[in-house]
């Protein structure tokens, strides 16, 4: 069974007589019946219940000279204890001497003297009950109406009048002229309707004639209540978020599983040993690949690597300060990011600098160095250029704008404002998505796997497997790769008994201050402080 309170035929009668309205003529006297027919307000209405369950109304109101007509129809009407029906009026047009508009929870029609034409659609009018569909309307007129002429058609010609009563409450009588023709069109004609009269009309059509679209809310509900459309919207949102989370988890798991083997970091030929990295990868580049970011540790490893490769010389001044000296100029053998690190330490052709001098505010700019390291990884095809991931950003912005607009619009009209919130949250998720997606390319994943395999090879390496004359060079060339993973202490401990003078040159060839030592015991305690100091020159956000 379908019951429409204030919809379908109810809307018809609202249109015709101003039910539940304040349709009051401006003139004080109330005409008698005969005078009303000739001189009063007349209404002619044509109504159509579409197959979508939308009531399409066209009406013509004629107001005598000196009168005014106002009809205010509430879009929220009681629907039993603790509930109310909510209607929506759309597609409003007005011609002639009248206006029609929705103001909050009211639909208002105003007509000045003359003839006015109105058309509009009433939504949310249909609810389903077992066995049949009924149009049921009970309303009270708040104006004297001279005459009403109305017609109603529906998708089914099998429409029947169940009941029609007219008159004062508790004293009503059958309607004088309401009938349905053989073609299924309902006609209603009434004259001399008095202020205070009530109309109670019930029509019946076959079940399933139109889809149910009624909206019933609990009394006191707000636009931000949880309703069926809201639940549907958040269900879709949760499914989308679950799909995105699964995609991100799968992608990141693939990244984390890149590489399971071991690479021997030492190349042995003709009784000699030398360190080698996979695909000639550099320590700073490897550090960027491992965590998909350029951090202070990667820069510190690059500084050590520049010293190991004889571009810089490092010598301690005290326990907390070191002098960095130019050995060779930055040439074409260096990558752009290495030149950026070199220039950050020794700008403008400076020959030497102390770490304490570099600590001066604004002396070292970390931003350009980080950008150069990331750009190098992108140029070499190891990382995806984040600026090219525009689709999620534009999609997120679009959804966010639509969501905010929908929230405001729905809050001011039909409710379900949380639907807009769900759309906006989807936009936020789209904007955040690139932050969680891995940025490594297929080539980058391969390199990352090789770097991790190299790390496992370094962990497994033993000093005595390397000829004494080659130990210092292997130790030094591999040291920056252990800095990026925080395992420099373990690497130095492995080579702590290395005699740096075994190559006939006292001390480490790139780090001064330990020329008299015959092992790396003191160096092992000193080196971590240097790394910490260099990392402090390139803090995050600088």
TrEMBL record:
Pfam families to which the protein is assigned, alphabetical: DUF2207_C
Protein's UniProt keywords contain Transmembrane: yes
Assigned keywords, A-Z: Membrane, Transmembrane, Transmembrane helix
Organism taxonomic ancestry: Bacteria, Bacillati, Actinomycetota, Actinomycetes, Mycobacteriales
Transmembrane helix listed as a keyword: yes
Name of the protein in question: DUF2207 domain-containing protein
UniProt source species: Nocardia cyriacigeorgica
Signal peptide residue numbers: none
Ranges annotated as spanning the membrane: 226-249, 393-412, 418-437
Residue ranges of domain Predicted membrane protein YciQ-like C-terminal in the record: 277-495
Superkingdom, natural source: Bacteria
């Amino acid at each position: 069974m379908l019951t429409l309170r204030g919809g379908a035929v109810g809307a018809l009668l609202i249109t015709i007589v101003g039910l539940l309205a304040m349709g009051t003529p401006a003139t004080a006297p109330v005409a008698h019946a005969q005078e009303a027919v000739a001189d009063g307000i007349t209404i002619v209405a044509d109504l159509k219940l579409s197959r979508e369950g939308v009531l399409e109304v066209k009406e013509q109101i004629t107001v005598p000279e000196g009168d005014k007509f106002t009809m205010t129809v509430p879009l929220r009407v009681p629907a039993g204890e603790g509930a109310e029906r909510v209607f929506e009026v759309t597609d409003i047009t007005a011609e002639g001497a009248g206006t029609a508009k929705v103001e909050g929870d009211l639909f208002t029609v105003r007509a000045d003297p003359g003839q006015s034409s109105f058309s509009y659609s009433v939504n949310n009018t249909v609810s389903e009950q077992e066995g049949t569909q009924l149009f049921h309307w009970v309303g009270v007129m708040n104006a004297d109406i001279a005459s009403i002429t109305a017609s109603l058609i529906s998708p089914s010609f099998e429409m029947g009048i169940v009941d029609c009563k007219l008159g004062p409450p508790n004293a009503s009588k059958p309607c004088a002229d309401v009938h349905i023709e053989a073609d299924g069109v309902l006609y209603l004609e009434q004259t001399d309707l008095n202020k205070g009269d009530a109309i109670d009309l019930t029509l019946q059509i076959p079940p399933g004639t139109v889809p149910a679209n009624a909206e019933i809310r609990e009394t006191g509900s707000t636009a931000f209540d949880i309703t069926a459309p809201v639940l549907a919207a958040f269900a879709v949102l949760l499914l989308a978020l679950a799909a995105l989370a699964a995609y991100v988890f799968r992608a990141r798991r693939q990244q984390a599983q890149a590489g399971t083997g071991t690479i021997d970091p030492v190349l042995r030929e003709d009784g000699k040993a030398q360190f080698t990295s996979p695909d000639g990868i550099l320590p700073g580049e490897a550090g960027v690949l491992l965590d998909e970011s350029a951090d202070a540790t990667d820069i510190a490893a690059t500084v050590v690597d520049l010293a190991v490769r004889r571009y810089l010389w490092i010598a301690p001044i005290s326990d907390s300060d070191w002098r960095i000296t130019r050995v060779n100029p930055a040439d074409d053998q260096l990558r752009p990011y290495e030149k950026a690190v070199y220039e950050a330490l020794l700008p403008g052709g400076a020959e030497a600098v102390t770490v304490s001098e570099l600590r001066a505010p604004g002396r070292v700019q970390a931003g350009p160095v980080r950008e150069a390291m990331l750009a190098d990884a992108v140029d070499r095809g190891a990382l995806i250029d984040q600026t090219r991931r525009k689709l999620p950003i534009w999609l997120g912005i679009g959804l966010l704008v639509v969501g905010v607009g929908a929230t405001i619009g729905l809050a001011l009209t039909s409710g379900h404002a949380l639907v807009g919130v769900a759309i906006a949250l989807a936009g936020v998720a789209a904007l955040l998505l690139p932050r969680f997606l891995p940025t490594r390319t297929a080539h980058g994943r391969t390199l990352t796997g090789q770097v991790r395999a190299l790390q496992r090879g370094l962990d497994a390496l033993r000093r005595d497997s390397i000829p004494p004359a080659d130990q210092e060079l292997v130790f030094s060339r591999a040291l920056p790769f252990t800095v990026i993973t925080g395992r420099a202490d373990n690497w130095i401990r492995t080579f702590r008994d290395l005699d740096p003078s075994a190559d006939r040159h006292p001390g480490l060839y790139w780090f001064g201050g330990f020329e008299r030592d015959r092992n790396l015991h003191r160096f092992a305690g000193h080196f971590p402080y240097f790394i910490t100091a260099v990392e402090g020159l390139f803090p995050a956000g600088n």
